[in-house]
């Protein structure tokens, strides 16, 4: 018996000893052999890391108006478990359906969602309709939540709002193709504009906070922390002017509705610096709602990506080369109508021609024959090609936008060179290339690189890098450029035969050229499909703006570049030149008299309101106060401006966007535009002259003023008196009329 007890005791002791031996071995293995592995694992369990998101840099226009900025957003989520416990499934489904527009069956699926264990989820986001919604939708969801809590006497109804941020474009579709867009995941969509091109600079770098926590995930006080601050993205200032962009898009909308083309493109630049003042395409899209059933073609920036045969706007290059080489005699005559070149016969738009006419008349009428003789016969193929290359065709311009095409310049046969002299054949250009070339004539012969970013600022260091104008080469001399400008001015100012007469504005000197390029088809050209355009600049003696309007396949194929694009150019230039403060020449005497007798506007910024009023009263200047502030924020007219007799001084005591719009009846359009631009109000004009009426409306959430204008006197108003006197098809220049020849060389 005792022996059995001893054996049992020995066995139990042995098992216990073995157990402790195994346990100690395991402890040794864990603490010594695998110490590094388990230390890392423990660190992962204890350590927590929070991401501190960086703010994406702002994009502003040249005057500081915000075009793109990060804004607060909210994601709608629900708690299916709580909703079922409260028994309010259908209330939640119907309420969120009414606010978010999400289908009821999809909402029901979310409300009834269960995990792998068959339990209702505690949180499900309402994607995509409830993802990153704005303040208005957030407030509606909050009201629904509060109403349900009150109705069912609950403390929580399972509706959650998660704070987030998103990219916001306060001007909606304005300059959409320039800006591009950032999607809901916070990623710049490639190929869509500045957002994508400068994504690395704009997006910044997220920060982080690493800390130790207990088993419940709660931060342990005084535990070591590693804090890496977020580095916000850089701010971009564009060369775009919001007001000019607005004028461009407003004119385009009206024309697009009337002409019903496939697409339309307008680009405006300062020819002296090649800063892009405005760039737009129709159709377009709203980057705030890029997902709303928009056709992919609406996202396409034709200004830099589309290539086309330019037609007669390209004749400016041929004319510039001929003038530079001393081969253009405006009084020399030639026989219009048709001309034979190896491989084909080329015709003017009026196939019978106008008889023997001067080369200057050929420029005004945009005679194809005149430019074949100038480019193909006088300059010759090699020198013509050299000028085409020097003006930048067949090469990317270097503009800071993604996806720029380089075009095509590849003449092979003699007929190709002849066709190139008037903008057809083996020649494809982008709208920006065409405008860069024309701006070189406007600015005195300098081919310059276009740019759309004015400066980049690092918000952390305050360092600003400014884009400087870049001259690529001198293509013609300043004297010859001035001479070419004089001829192009007559294309617009000759109201009888000038193809550009529809862009004529009384009082402004405008140079321009029209184009109507018939689209190529199998075996030739399809005359029912054409690209019509107008390119020009003003004022001729001191150009402030160069502009190109291009319309792809207007529904009426009888319209040429002059009759379709000319009126659009006229409307835009008339508004922009006055907005820029460029006086009409007919007003020079009146302006001189006013300057001689008017007072000089004093500097008021920063003064107290009463102090400013006393100062103006002492100088005999009448005034009006706008806003409820105590100090002068800005003024109109600006300090140093010579005021006209009887002109009011406007004292602004708040930022312009917060002020009521004053009555500007009786003012000139220039004065009204300057004042309203200070108030950051978009302006639409009807008519010409002085303001006789004004109407305030809201367009896409932005204030807009429509000014009705009438001249003080109708006498002498003979603008466009002969504009429509000639035949409808005298736009001219433009259509490519060719007959195939016998040499076997293909037509362009």
From TrEMBL:
It comes from the Bacteria. Residues 710-748 are annotated as: Disordered. GO terms for biological process: cell wall organization. The keyword Membrane applies. Keywords: Membrane. One of its GO terms (cellular component) is plasma membrane. It is found in: Membrane. One of its GO terms (molecular function) is penicillin binding. Residues 730-742 have a biased composition (Acidic residues). Residues 653-711 form the PASTA domain. Belongs to the transpeptidase family. This is Penicillin-binding transpeptidase domain-containing protein.
């Amino acid at each position: 018996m005792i022996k059995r007890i001893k054996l049992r005791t020995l066995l139990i002791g042995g098992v216990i000893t073995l157990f402790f031996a195994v346990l100690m071995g395991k402890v040794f293995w864990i603490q010594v052999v695998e110490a590094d592995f388990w230390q890392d694992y423990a660190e992962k369990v204890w350590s927590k890391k929070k991401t501190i998101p960086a703010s994406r840099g702002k994009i502003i226009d040249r005057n500081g108006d915000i075009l793109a900025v990060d804004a607060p957003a909210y994601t709608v989520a629900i708690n299916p478990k709580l909703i079922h416990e409260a028994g309010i499934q259908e209330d939640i489904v119907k309420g969120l359906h009414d606010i978010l527009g999400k289908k009821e069956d999809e909402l029901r699926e979310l409300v009834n969602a269960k995990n792998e264990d068959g339990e209702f989820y505690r949180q499900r986001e309402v994607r995509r309709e409830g993802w990153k919604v704005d303040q208005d939708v957030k407030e509606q969801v909050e009201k629904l939540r509060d109403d349900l809590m009150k109705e069912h006497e609950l403390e929580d109804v399972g509706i959650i709002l998660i704070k987030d941020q998103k990219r916001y474009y306060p001007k909606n579709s304005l300059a959409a193709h320039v800006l591009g867009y950032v999607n809901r995941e916070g990623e710049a969509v490639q190929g869509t504009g500045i957002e994508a091109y400068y994504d690395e600079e704009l997006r910044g770098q997220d920060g982080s906070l690493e800390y130790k926590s207990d088993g419940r995930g709660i931060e342990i006080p005084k535990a070591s922390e590693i804090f890496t601050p977020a580095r916000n993205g850089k701010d971009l200032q564009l060369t775009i002017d919001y007001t000019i962009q607005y004028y461009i898009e407003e004119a385009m909308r009206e024309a697009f509705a009337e002409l019903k083309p496939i697409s339309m493109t307008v680009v405006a630049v300062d020819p002296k610096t090649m800063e892009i003042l405005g760039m737009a395409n129709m159709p377009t899209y709203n980057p705030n709602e890029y997902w709303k059933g928009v056709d992919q073609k609406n996202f396409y920036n034709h200004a830099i990506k589309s290539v086309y045969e330019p037609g007669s706007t390209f004749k400016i290059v041929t004319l510039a080369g001929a003038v530079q080489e001393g081969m253009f005699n405006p009084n020399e005559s030639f026989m219009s109508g048709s001309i034979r070149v190896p491989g084909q016969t080329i015709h003017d738009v009026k196939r019978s021609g106008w008889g023997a006419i001067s080369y200057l008349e050929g420029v005004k009428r945009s005679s194809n024959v005149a430019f074949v003789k100038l480019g193909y016969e006088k300059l010759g193929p090699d020198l013509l090609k050299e000028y085409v290359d020097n003006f930048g065709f067949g090469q990317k311009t270097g503009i800071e936008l993604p996806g720029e095409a380089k075009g095509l310049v590849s003449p092979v046969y003699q007929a190709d060179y002849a066709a190139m002299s008037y903008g057809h054949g083996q020649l494809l250009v982008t709208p920006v290339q065409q405008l860069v070339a024309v701006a070189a004539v406007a600015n005195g012969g300098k081919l310059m690189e276009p740019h759309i970013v004015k400066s980049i600022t690092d918000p952390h260091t305050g360092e600003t890098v400014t884009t400087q104008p870049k001259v690529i080469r001198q293509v013609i001399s300043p004297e010859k450029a001035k001479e070419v400008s004089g001829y192009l001015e007559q294309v617009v100012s000759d109201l009888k035969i000038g193809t550009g007469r529809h862009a004529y504005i009384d009082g402004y000197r405008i140079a321009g050229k029209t184009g109507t390029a018939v689209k190529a088809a199998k075996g030739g050209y399809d005359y029912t499909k054409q690209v019509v355009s107008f390119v020009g600049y003003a004022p001729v003696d001191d150009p402030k703006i160069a502009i190109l309007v291009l319309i792809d396949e207007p529904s009426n194929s009888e319209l040429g570049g002059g009759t379709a694009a000319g009126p659009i150019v006229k409307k835009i230039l008339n508004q922009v030149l006055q907005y820029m403060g460029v006086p009409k020449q007919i007003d020079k005497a009146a302006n001189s008299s006013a300057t001689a007798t008017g007072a000089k506007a004093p500097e008021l910024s920063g003064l107290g309101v009463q102090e400013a009023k006393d100062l103006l009263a002492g100088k005999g200047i009448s005034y009006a106060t706008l806003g409820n502030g105590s100090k002068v924020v800005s003024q109109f007219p600006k300090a140093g401006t010579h005021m006209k007799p009887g002109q009011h001084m406007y004292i602004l005591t708040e930022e312009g966007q917060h002020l009521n719009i004053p009555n500007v009846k009786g003012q000139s359009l220039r004065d009204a535009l300057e004042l309203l631009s200070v108030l950051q109000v978009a302006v639409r004009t009807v008519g010409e002259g002085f303001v006789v009426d004004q109407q305030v409306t809201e367009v896409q959430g932005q204030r807009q003023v429509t000014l009705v204008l009438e001249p003080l006197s109708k006498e002498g108003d003979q603008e466009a008196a002969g504009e429509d006197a000639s035949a409808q098809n005298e736009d001219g220049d433009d259509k490519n009329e060719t007959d195939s020849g016998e040499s076997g060389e293909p037509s362009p």
